[in-house]
Amino acid sequence: MDFTPPRALGFLLGGTFLAILLVLIVVSVVQLTTATISAWLILWVTLPLVSVPLALLVTYRLYNLLTARYRLDRDGFYLTWGLSTEQVSLAEITLMRSADELDANLLPARGLWWPGYVFGSREVEGEGLVEFFATTGPRGMMVLSTGERLLAISPPDLEAFQQAFVDATRLGSLEPIPTLSQRPDFVFSDLWNDRLAQVLVLMGLVLPLLLLGYLALRVPTLPFRVPFGFDTTGSPNPLVPPGRLLLLPMIGGLCWIADFAIGAWLYRRERDRPLAYAVWLGAIVVGGLFWGATLQLLATI
Predict the structure, then answer these.
(1) Could you give the dihedral angle defined by the CA atoms of residues 154, 160, 163 and 168, in that order, rounded to the nearest 10 degrees?
(2) 203: nearest Cα among 258, 290, 285, 291
(3) Which residue, of 33, 45, 238, 289, has the fewest CB within 10 Å?
(4) pLDDT at 232
(5) Cα–Cα distance, 267 to 188 (Å, whole number)
């Protein structure tokens, strides 16, 4: 039997957070295209570089919420939460209780979560580490004890879930299932132990950062108007405030973020890792192109 946790509040708040971040990104880019040299330039450059990763993280959280499922059958309990999965034989579930029995304020200790999306972990004295895959507060949660692990979940109907568990247990298992616990962080663990991946990712990141530092030193000394682009004949055009040049490393940084995310997604599967390397190599090429464009524009001043 499948159970889908309540998701309306999580989608509402998560969608609101995402909309705010997107507005900040758009406002920063618009301001950066027209701003003159001032301390505000630092804010307009920094906001997108901070907001875009946060927006991607919120988007991934919303994807987790979209895929959130619990399932019970006569062989075991199954949990899907984005890239996180749990598979536990019913015989291994030693205790099932409400979250209030552990702690009336049982919630994750850290991480990016919000009401309607309760994901993370917390150490409970005398119980151990509780992992949260829920969408409600403690009153709507149920904690499953599976050996040394505790999983906090939020089925839409706690009594129906408990009854389904009892019914599945009475039927008896047809085929023992192996215990499976998979988290997306295994990708990053493998990635940072891969020397080639490290070099490609870090080189792709360093290029826009160095370009940003270079322009930060050059922009205050530039004329009131500078070229930003070339026409069909190769002549510099149009003339803009020098602050707009900072768009180049910012766009390069955003390209790196996108390439890193796509590459990490591909890196999950062994057969797709050459594609991940190619994507990260592409980020280096893009960074080099932005450097070339910047130097060519400055050479025309």
Answers:
(1) -80
(2) 285
(3) 238
(4) 65
(5) 9
Q: Tell me, what's the pLDDT at 209? A: 83
- The closest of 279, 274, 288 to 258, measured between CA atoms, is 279
Does the reported pTM lie above 0.85?
no
CA atoms within 13 A on the CB side of 210: 13
Asked if 133 and 206 sit in the same domain, the reply is: no
Peptide bond into 176 cis (omega under 30): no
Q: For tokens 């509040």, name the residue.
A: 9
Quick one: 165 and 272 in the same domain? no
- Examine the pLDDT at 51 and tell me if it is beyond 90: no
pLDDT tens digits for 143-202? 988 877 889 999 998 888 888 888 888 887 777 788 888 877 655 666 777 888 889 988
pLDDT in tens, 211-269: 888 887 777 777 777 777 766 666 666 777 777 777 888 888 888 888 988 888 888 78
SS3 290: helix
One domain for residues 174 and 52: yes
The whole-number average pLDDT for the span 11-30 is 90
User: Which H or E run contains 11?
Assistant: helix 8-34
Q: Which of 146, 168, 183 is the last residue of a domain?
A: 183
- In Å, how far from its chain's centre is CA 45? 21
**Residues ≥6 apart with Cβ < 8 Å to 241:** 34, 35, 36, 37, 224, 225, 226
Range of the domain at 247: 185-301
Question: In terms of domains, do 228 and 104 share one?
Answer: no
- Please state, in angstroms and rounded to a whole number, the distance separating the CA atoms of residues 264 and 256: 12
Same domain, 178 and 59: yes
